[in-house]
Amino acid sequence: MKKVPASFFNDDTVMVARNMVGKTLVYESSQGLMAGVIKETEAYTQDDPACHAYLGKQTKRNRAMFESPGTLYIYMIYGMYYCLNFVCEEVGKGCAVLIRELIPTHGMDLMKKNRDCSKDNLLNGPSKLVQAFGISPTLNGCSYDRSPLFVCETPVSSSFLSINHYPRIGISKGVDCLWRFRGE
After folding, report:
1. Boundaries of every domain in the chain
2. Which end of the chain is more exposed for a tag (fewer CB within 10 A), N or C?
């Protein structure tokens, strides 16, 4: 599989979110290789009231969002789960794409062990995929070129028939933005 370059993320965040659907997320972990086809993403930009970097506000929590394109942004939700994002657009602009769901392709035994569950619901949520891959929050802020997590082109045979857009999940502001993309 061919790794997409960091420049892939240096584009309009909404377009990157759409273009990530159908690509493969790969994690070269200390446990072994794990991978899955990206089925669902969500875009967040600093002009979006649902974004952690709304109006360009930089905090300790969201600092990674202002780094170079492709940087990992991993944050905690509900005080116990983590979510994985890839930073988009130019340095200094707080934008990222949340990875919401994957279809597992490699390392399923490791994923099942990490989540202690069946294959059916292994990667169907942003926190579930972080747990299944065993992604450490210490990777937050890791640059794309040094990251063990990266995105690759997927063989055409694994592509979706269509990519649809929907309202994002779990937000109360910016609900009118159809920035959730799902391969069907």
Report:
1. 6-154
2. C
pTM over 0.85: yes
**According to the model, what pLDDT value does residue 119 have?**
62
Q: Report the percentage of the chain scoring pLDDT > 70.
A: 97
Query: Residue 158 is which amino acid?
Result: S
CATH class for the domain made up of 6-154: alpha beta
